[in-house]
C-alpha cells in the first residue's frame, strides 16, 4: 500500500466530501445544532495524518496553524500573532500569540510550535505531510515567544501552506495525537462513536471571536434519500452540499437556502497505468465525447461551473476560463481521435465511484452513456467510502473514478502538486516531464508573478494532455433551519462553525 499523507481528494480527497444531515430525533435548542456528514471521519485524530477532505473540513474548527484563511481568502494570524519575512524571503519569523491556550487548558508554548513544525515538515525523522514542506530547512527558537522557519529556497506561497489543518499546532506533550485530540480552535473535540457521530463543544477560552453555538453534533448519514424528509420533519437543523433533488423538496418557509460552489474539481480521473489511458488519442476522444453541460443539467439542474483543468474559479489569478471550452462537446472529433488510437473498436473499463455521493454517482451514469457512443463500455462500480479510500486513493487499484478534489490551502500548489510524477498523492499515476519541470519552476520561483506564470503553465499542460476528463466545480446548496443564520461560504472546502448563530 502506498503511504499517502495528503489529499485533496483532496473527495481528495477529496479529494471531495459531500455532507448531508441526519438525526437521532432528539429535540434541538439554541445551544445545539446537528449537521450530518456523508462518511465517518479519518481513523486518526492527528491533524498531520488527516486525509479526507470532509474530515479536514470540520476539523477546521478544532485545529489552527500559525496562520489561517478567512472567508475572503486572506491569510490572517492564528496561533502566531504576527509574522515577519526576511528581505531574501528565506526566513519567516513568527511571534507566539500571548495567552493562547490548548483545549486541555494548558498554555501554548514556543516549544509546542517548534515541535509541531518539525513534525509536519518531517524534520523529526518522519515524513512531511505535504511536499510543500520539503522546502523547510530549519526551525529555530530564538526567544520564549519567537520561532524562525528557514527555507531552502524562496517560495511566495509559503504562508498559504501553513494556513491549513495539516499544518496545525498541537501539544508537544500529547503522546497519543491519534486518539487524543487537542487543538487551539474555537471548538474542541469531545467524542466520536464510529459510524454514528462526532461531537464538538465550544471552547470558551478561545483567543479570538469564538462560536455562538455551544454544542455541535455531526451525525454520520450515508443514506441521502432520507435528507429532505428529516429536514422537513423539523428534527434536522442543517444540511450542507444538498443535491438538486434534495433542494427542490424543501419548503423555503422553514429553511434558508444558501447557494455557492463547493470549491473542488470534479472530474473523471483516469488511472494512467490502465493501458488505454496511456494513449493520448483515447484521452482526447473521451474529453470530446463528454458534455459537461449535459452532466450539469442532469446532476444539478444546470447549476455548476464548467472547468477544463485542475483549477477551480475561486482560485482567481490561477484560473483560466478559456480552458473550459477547449474540449467543447464534439462527437465527430471524439470519433476521429478514437479511430486513430490504439483502440479504434473501443474497450471495456470500470468507473469506481463512492456510493454515498449522489452527485458523483449521477455523473458516472451520464458518463457511461456518453462514452458508449465512441465504443467505450463503462461499468459503474459503487463502493463505500472506506473502500474508495483504500482501493482507489491509496492502492490505486482502479481504471477511472468520479470524485471531487479540493484544495487544502489557497496556493495553486494545493491543487497541482498531486500531478507531479513522484508525488505521494498522485493517485492518477500521471507522469509528464514537461509538467514536472513547470511545477518545479513554480515552487522554486522567487516572486509570486513568476510562480503564477508557471502554475498556469501546469494547468495548461493538464488540459493539453487531456490528463483527465474535467467536468465542473459543483454547485453547493446549503439548507439551514431559520432558527439559525450566518452560514458563510469560503473559497476553500471548509465549514466555519463560528459564523452560525441562533436567531432570537
Amino acid at each position: 500500500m502506498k503511504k499517502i499523507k495528503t489529499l485533496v481528494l483532496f473527495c481528495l480527497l477529496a479529494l471531495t466530501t459531500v455532507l448531508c444531515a441526519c438525526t437521532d430525533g432528539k429535540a434541538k435548542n439554541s445551544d445545539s445544532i446537528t449537521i450530518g456528514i456523508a462518511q465517518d471521519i479519518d481513523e486518526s485524530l492527528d491533524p498531520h495524518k488527516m486525509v479526507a477532505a470532509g474530515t479536514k473540513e470540520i476539523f477546521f474548527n478544532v485545529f489552527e496553524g500559525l496562520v489561517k484563511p478567512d472567508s475572503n481568502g486572506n491569510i490572517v494570524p492564528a496561533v502566531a500573532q504576527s509574522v515577519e519575512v526576511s528581505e531574501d524571503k528565506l526566513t519567516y519569523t513568527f511571534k507566539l500569540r500571548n495567552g493562547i491556550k490548548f483545549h486541555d487548558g494548558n498554555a501554548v508554548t514556543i516549544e509546542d510550535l517548534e515541535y509541531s513544525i518539525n513534525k509536519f515538515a518531517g524534520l523529526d525523522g518522519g515524513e512531511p505531510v505535504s511536499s510543500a514542506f520539503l522546502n523547510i530547512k530549519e526551525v529555530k527558537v530564538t526567544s520564549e515567544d519567537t520561532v524562525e522557519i528557514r527555507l531552502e529556497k524562496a517560495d511566495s506561497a509559503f504562508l498559504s501552506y501553513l494556513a491549513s489543518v495539516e499544518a496545525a499546532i498541537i501539544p508537544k506533550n500529547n503522546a497519543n495525537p491519534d486518539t487524543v485530540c487537542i487543538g487551539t480552535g474555537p471548538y474542541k473535540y469531545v467524542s466520536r462513536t464510529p459510524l454514528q457521530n462526532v461531537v464538538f463543544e465550544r471552547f470558551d477560552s478561545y483567543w479570538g471571536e469564538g462560536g455562538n453555538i455551544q454544542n455541535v453534533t455531526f451525525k454520520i448519514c450515508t443514506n441521502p434519500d432520507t435528507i429532505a424528509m428529516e429536514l422537513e420533519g423539523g428534527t434536522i437543523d442543517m444540511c450542507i452540499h444538498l443535491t438538486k433533488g434534495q433542494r427542490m423538496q424543501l419548503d423555503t418557509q422553514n429553511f434558508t437556502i444558501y447557494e455557492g460552489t463547493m470549491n473542488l474539481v470534479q472530474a473523471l480521473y483516469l488511472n494512467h497505468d490502465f493501458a488505454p489511458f496511456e494513449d493520448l488519442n483515447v484521452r482526447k476522444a473521451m474529453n470530446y465525447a463528454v458534455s459537461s453541460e449535459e452532466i450539469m443539467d442532469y446532476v444539478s439542474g444546470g447549476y455548476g461551473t464548467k472547468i477544463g483543468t485542475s483549477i477551480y474559479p475561486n482560485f482567481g489569478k490561477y484560473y483560466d476560463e478559456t480552458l473550459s471550452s477547449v474540449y467543447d462537446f464534439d462527437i465527430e472529433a471524439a470519433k476521429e481521435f478514437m479511430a486513430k488510437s490504439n483502440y479504434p473498436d473501443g474497450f471495456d473499463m470500470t468507473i469506481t465511484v463512492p456510493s454515498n455521493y449522489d452527485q458523483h454517482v449521477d455523473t458516472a451514469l451520464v458518463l457511461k452513456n456518453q462514452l458508449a457512443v465512441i465504443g467505450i463500455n463503462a461499468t459503474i462500480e459503487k463502493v463505500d467510502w472506506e473502500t474508495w479510500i483504500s482501493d482507489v486513493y491509496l492502492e490505486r487499484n482502479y481504471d477511472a473514478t468520479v470524485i471531487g478534489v479540493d484544495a487544502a490551502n489557497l496556493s495553486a500548489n494545493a491543487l497541482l502538486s498531486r500531478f507531479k510524477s513522484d508525488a505521494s498523492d498522485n493517485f492518477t499515476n500521471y507522469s509528464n516531464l514537461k509538467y514536472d519541470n513547470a511545477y518545479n519552476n513554480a515552487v522554486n520561483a522567487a516572486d509570486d508573478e513568476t510562480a503564477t506564470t508557471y502554475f498556469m503553465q501546469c494547468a495548461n499542460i493538464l488540459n493539453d494532455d487531456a490528463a483527465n476528463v474535467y467536468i465542473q466545480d459543483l454547485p453547493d446548496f446549503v439548507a439551514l433551519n431559520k432558527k439559525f443564520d450566518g452560514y458563510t461560504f469560503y473559497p476553500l472546502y471548509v465549514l466555519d462553525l463560528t459564523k452560525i448563530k441562533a436567531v432570537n
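The longest strand covers residues 136-143. Residues 288 and 328 are 6 Å apart (CA to CA).
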